[in-house]
Amino acid sequence: MKNYKFEIFADYFQIYLMDVEADEDTSDIWTEQALNIKLGILANTLAISTFRNVDVPLEVEIHDSQPEISLEEWDHASIDYFTVTSGQCAVFGCSDYLPDAARIEVAPGKYSAISLAKGLDSITEEWEDADDLYKIILWPSAASECKALKHYEHT
After folding, report:
1. Cα dihedral 119, 125, 130, 133 in deg (nearest 10)
2. Based on CB atoms within 10 Å of each CB, which residue in 43, 94, 135, 149 is the most buried?
3. Does residue 8 contact residue 91 with C-beta atoms inside 8 Å?
4. Which residue segments constitute the domains of the chain, with CATH numbers given?
5. Alpha helices, DSSP H only, in 32-154?
């Protein structure tokens, strides 16, 4: 397993994980379904919807096979898939300068991707400190599921 940790400015409430060779127009990534599951997908790009419009912690895990994931510890979870062709992905906020974005190694192939969020009840105002955490877990897979596994319900 590879594990990466970042603090990313989630401008417009979104963070991207994109194949560095992707040439995709992300202006249409937020479909009605993507907004519902808080995960936008293009062929070589993931867009993770956050619950705050500030710097947020993001972890990316890359596994060799489907890991065991306990949804009980997470407030929100969605699954989808994408393809990496170059062997490297950029991790960035939507208004970041792409050439300066952090890079992670991801072997070329098709991946299932689970987007997870927790600590969401700690958010009182989007600009105040909170304990929210966002995580993307990737593993090689030809599956093409696209759905919410758990919806966050604000209490």
Report:
1. 50
2. 135
3. yes
4. 2-150 (2.60.34.30)
5. 32-37
